Structures are given as C-alpha cells and as structure tokens.
Amino acid sequence: MTATRVLVLNSGSSSVKYQLLDMRDGARLAQGLVERIGEETSRLKHTPLTGGGGESREQNRPIADHEEALKAVAGELAHDGLGLDSPELAAIGHRVVHGGKFFTQPTVIDDAVLKEVERLIPVAPLHNPANLTGIRTAMALRPDLPQVAVFDTAFHTTMPESASRYAIDVKTADEHRIRRYGFHGTSHAYVSRRTAELLGKEPEEVNVIVLHLGNGASASAVRGGVCVETSMGLTPLEGLVMGTRSGDVDPAVIFHLMRVGNMSADEIDVLLNKKSGLIGLCGDNDMREIRRRIDEGDQEARLAFDIYIHRLKKYIGAYYAVLGRVDAVAFTAGVGENAAPVREAAVSGLEELGLTVDGELNSVRSDEARIISPEYARVAVAVVPTDEELEIARQTYALVGDSDRRHA
Ligand code: ADP
C-alpha cells in the first residue's frame, strides 16, 4: 500500500494543533486542537473531515502533558479509522519556529537535528522548547516513521546579508547569533507561490510583496520566488504593528524604560510582546472589534487603526523600493483575508505606484484566492488565504515522498 497521508503537528507550550492530510490531492481528513495542556481545564476538539465531514468531538478532562495529548489525538484519529499505526501514514511534519541560519530546508529529524534545534533555544525561548517536546513525543509514539521539521525561518534564509544583518558591532552580533531571521516563512512561501499561480505565471517570473496580517503580522519581499527581505527580525517582535506586539520601536525605548521606568528586561519583554500593538493602543486586538468601535465614532480605536495602516504603508513603500518592480501585493491571514477596510487603506494614495483596489472586488467575501485590483492596474492586489498546514504537509511529503519501500 502506498503511504500518502501526512500528519501535521504544531506544538505550542500548552497546546497542540494538528491536521491529517492525504497528499494524493491535499485533502484534509481530520483536524483538531488540544489546549490548556497541564491544566485542570484541558480540552481536545477533534473534527473528522472525510466523507463530507462529521460532528466535532470534544474531550474535556485534565491532560497532563504532550504525551497524553498526542495519545488522545491518536485515539480520536483511530476512532475515525485514521490511526497513527496505519500503513497509509507516510510521515509526521512538525512546525518548528526557529531554524536559525543552519536550516534552510525542511529536514528529516534525527539526533543531530534535535541537538541543533535545542541549541537555538536562546533565540527562541518560547517556541523551540515546545516544538521539541512535540517532536520527541511523536517520535516516541512512532519511532519507525520519518518525522520532518519545517522551519518558520527557512524561507527567509535567502535574504542577502545587506538585509539580514543589523548594523551593530559584527563581533558581538556573531557571538550571540544576532541577525534578522524572519518568521511566518511557510506562509510567505505558500502565498507568494499561489500569487504567481493566480497571475498565470511561474514564481520565477514575478516579484511579490506578501502581507501576512494575523494576530502576529509580517511583510516580505519575494523576488522571483526567492525571499529578499522580511519585517520580523531576531524574534517576531520587529516590523509591523501587530495584535499585541509593538513592531518597530527605537531600541533606546528599552534602556529608557530600564533606567527611567525601573522596569526589568522581562517586564519590557512582556510590555512589547503582549501589551503593545493594537491592544496597547486601544485595548482591543481583534480587527473586527476595532472596526466596530470606529463605526461608532471611537477616536482611540481610530488612532490605533491609523497607526497600524501607517506602518503597513511604510513597509509597502520600502519593499517596493527593495524590489524595484512589483507585480503583486498579496494580503493574507486573519486580517489580510477578511478586513477589506485594511486592504483599502493600506494601498490608498499609492496609485502613482500602480497600486489600487476595486471597491466592489475588495468587498466580496470569499475563501478563494482572488485579485481585487481593477484590470488596468499595473500592480495586482490579491487576497490569498494562507494554508500553512498544507504547505508543511507538501514539504514533508516532498522530502519523504514515496514510502513504498518502507512498507514493502
Ligand atoms: P494568528 O494565526 O496569528 O493567531 P489569524 O491569522 O488567525 O492569527 O488572525 C487572527 C486575527 O484576524 C484576529 O485577531 C482578528 O483581528 C482578525 N480577523 C479574523 N476575522 C476577521 C474578520 N472577519 N474581519 C476582520 N478581522 C478579522
């Protein structure tokens, strides 16, 4: 039997998101989420998607750790006839946030890979330990199965040094591995490729600015399918205004807060990552709520929106300059896919650059990738729903591919 299924795991510190896909056609067979692992109120929500989909099932009981979580997931999948022991399972693909400079490609996980991901913990203290726990647990459950790490940073490793280096003392930077890595790479890779497809071109033929606007947000400049610049840096804090992250600030804000505000490094970390961005500006980080408040005349929400758009526009202009020629600007993720006013405001006034949206096309609600600029526009503006799980599954499957041999 040919093994064509890939299980995609995205392990957080207290959660595991998963999808099982069939790579013959990319169909989703099941998906789910385990959250609040280690707490009394853990929850597993599993949705079977075969045969038109079934009712979601929930387990509301304490789930002590990732091992118990994955065993519970395996149980739910087995209930649908999709168990992890099935010979049809080709591989498990793991989202790994930080691959540093070293991992430029999806990689089959072995001890050396685990060691390297562990070595990167100082630059990704929140994410890499959780990703590692997920990998180790899955490996213990199916030691014979190929497990592949797909890195959020990999797509950005093609950035030239002029973009990836900070202008700080080289020795200090190298000693502490300080450079711009970029994140959301799986999404930027998928969306830039899909945008080329939408234009009826090969990725090599087009230059695209991708705006991934979710709760976390990042922009990238992709020249001929190759990433040449992205807005997140050493960590996901740099760049655009996000749901709860500040994005760019003068670095002096940090030592000013230490010296004058008597705040510790950890306190400032929390301030800039969790209490800034839209939530810091107006108390809400959900764009729907912010738009509702603006419609009611709320000035605080209006200013938060304006700051968000101002930054976005600056990045569009900067990446236009980096690329020289732009064929498309693609909006993706929760805000980018759904918030028409954000898309409209982000390109308004940029007609001279060939950028504009058609009001009617922009307001259409759809889950499909689509172009929202008028036909005459020099630059296509597109909405391209991202699909990180499909991209992880594809990259995983491309690597371990035809596994007939293993099951022969
Ligand atoms: P992440 O994966 O980073 O958590 P998502 O890509 O799912 O984020 O985006 C979540 C955000 O998308 C929400 O915080 C909200 O601001 C925004 N969002 C979701 N749906 C809509 C909508 N219909 N209109 C406007 N914004 C939306």
Backbone structural class: alpha/beta
- Strand-residue proportion: 15-25%
Classify the helix fraction into a percent range.
25-40%
Shape descriptor: globular
Number of strands: 14
- How many discrete structural domains? 2
What key phrases describe this protein's structure?
408 residues, alpha/beta, Nucleotidyltransferase, domain 5, 2 domains, 8-stranded mixed β-sheet, 6-stranded mixed β-sheet, 14 strands, 38% helix, disordered C terminus, binds adenosine-5'-diphosphate, Acetate kinase, kinase, transferase
Gist of the model:
The chain is of the alpha/beta class.
What secondary-structure arrangement, pairings included, does this model have?
Elements: E1 5-11, E2 16-22, E3 27-35, E4 43-48, E5 57-60, H1 66-79, E6 89-96, E7 107-108, H2 111-119, H3 128-141, E8 147-151, H4 161-164, H5 170-175, H6 185-198, E9 207-213, E10 217-223, E11 226-230, H7 252-259, H8 265-274, H9 277-282, H10 287-295, H11 299-323, E12 328-332, H12 333-338, H13 340-347, H14 359-363, E13 370-371, E14 380-383, H15 388-400, H16 404-407
Bound molecules: adenosine-5'-diphosphate.
